[in-house]
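== Protein entry: sequence and backbone fold ==
=== Local backbone shapes as whole numbers ===
==== Amino acids and backbone structure tokens ====
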Amino acid sequence: MNANRRVFAARATRTLGATLLALAASAALSIAHAQAGAMKVTLAGGSVGGAWSAIGNAIGETLRKEYTSTSFTYEPGREAGNLQLVSSGKVELGIAHAQLAKQAAAGVDPFKAPLTNVRAIAMIDPEAAVQIFAHKNSGITSIEQIRDKKMPVRVALNSKGTLMAITGEQVFEAYGFSVKDIASWGGRVDYVAYNNGLASMKNGQIDLIINMLAFPAGQVTNAARDIPLAMIGLSPDAIGKLNGKLGTESIDVPAGTYDFAPQKVNTVRGSVVVVASTDMKDEDAARIVSAMLKHFDFLQKSHATLARLTPASLTQVAPLQLHPGAAAAYRKAGLIK
């Protein structure tokens, strides 16, 4: 009897050992698989609390959902700086307007030298429209009026190093004057984050604010509860100059987009993209795109700008070229040929 028990115990021990080894091997394989899919990604976007911050973090969350061991960091930045950080390999991803990335490739101001190794991963905002708002108490009804009357206007543009700030300056140039002229007339131009500019307008410190953003913009709708706003459009001549200089496109903001703007407003638009360096491995670029596509429903729910997109929209990155790895992922998904 004792002998039989010893035999049974030995067999049970061997069986348990084999089971534990199998479980350990399975766990090791699972860990290896997770580590193989893991990524370390830093994305440079815009100021904390802005649209780019929300969108950038949402993209990071798709990576975490798809590759559970992924390390993702969102880094507040400025647009031109984002492109330089990506080009130099200091961050993996950046957010910028496609039109500014085109200027970067050509080495046009504010870039000291051409950044030729920047490619697009995805388009995330097709309607970054130039929107100009004046405080009604300022009496401003057009950009021509500022020029003709040499008004000492107080202007808020977005932070320096962004296409939004460059475009704001170019709006004035299209009408034949500059930010230096505004200063000589007794006015000033502040380069600040958009929310800060709106806050200054609410406090009576700013007369005119210019930015590029989707419409209707929640920031504007909220600000209009406390600030009497007027929306100002661009002339056909100014639109032609801006499109030729910056590579923007003509667009109309429909009548009634904002309660205080009952008329259609003519303006221009750019597009916002996520970019990476050509040094990024094709495999990594494909993984990022695959995660965004697989969790596209999550992206759409994360921000109103993304809610307007379709998976095919992500591929529309002109005038930039897609990163080869991103293109391969879109091709595999049947979104491009």
